[in-house]
Amino acid sequence: MAKKARQPSSDDKVMAMLPHLLSIFTGFIGPLIIYIVNQDKKNKYVMGNAKHALNFQISLMIYYIVSFVLVFVFIGILLLIALSIFALVFEIIATVKAYEGEIYKYPLEIPFIR
User: Fold this and answer.
1) Residues 17, 41: Cα–Cα separation, whole Å
2) Which of 5, 24, 27 lies closest to 101 in space, CA to CA?
3) At what angle do helices 10-26 and 29-37 cross, to 10 degrees?
4) Which of 19, 22, 79, 99 meets the CB 3.0–4.6 Å disulfide criterion with 34?
5) Predicted confidence (pLDDT) per residue in 18-48, tens digit
6) What value does the mean pLDDT take over residues 88-92?
7) Does residue 89 sit in helix, strand or coil?
8) How far apart are CA 97 and CA 95, in angstroms?
9) Cα 14 off chain centre by
10) Per-residue burial over 20-57, b = 16 or more CB atoms within 10 Å of its CB, e = otherwise
11) Which contacts of 32-37 are long-range, i.e. CB under 8 A and separated by 24 or more positions?
12) What residue segments make up the domains of the chain, in order of their start?
């Protein structure tokens, strides 16, 4: 029989959910703080979620800069709106998935932190 994976504790679920939730309001600052605070604890579940949230926020900054440059070609305004909606939807999905015990990987996430 296969060995069952250990379920994360309630505290771990909250700590894993926080970087995704905070990123809605603080951008990359919230996930960065959670990543740094939990770096010593070696909790793969919390660190995995913090790492993915941080990578997604850094990726978003790049996408926003490119969209802003394209504002001068008039397509950038649509890209900024679409990117904002995309980010909000997937940050909410990631928050829920992390609280359910998953390490959530965002679409279009560039893996800066491995």
Assistant:
1) 16
2) 5
3) 150
4) 19
5) 999 999 999 899 999 999 998 887 788 889 9
6) 96
7) helix
8) 6
9) 14
10) bbbbeeebbebbbbbbeebeeeebebbbbbbbbbbbbb
11) 35/113
12) 10-97
- How many Å separate Cα 99 from the centre of its chain? 13
Contact (Cβ atoms closer than 8 angstroms) between residue 39 and residue 24:
no
Contacts of 5 (CB under 8 A, 6+ apart): none
CB atoms within 10 A of CB 12: 19
Q: Cα–Cα distances in Å, from 48 out to 36, 65, 113?
A: 12, 26, 10
Residue 8 is given by DSSP the state P
Q: Tell me, what's the pLDDT at 44?
A: 87
* Six token digits for residue 28: 């990359």
pLDDT in tens, 62-82: 999 999 999 888 888 999 999
- For 111, residues 6+ apart whose C-beta sits below 8 A from its C-beta are 55
* Distance, C-alpha 24 to centroid of its chain: 9
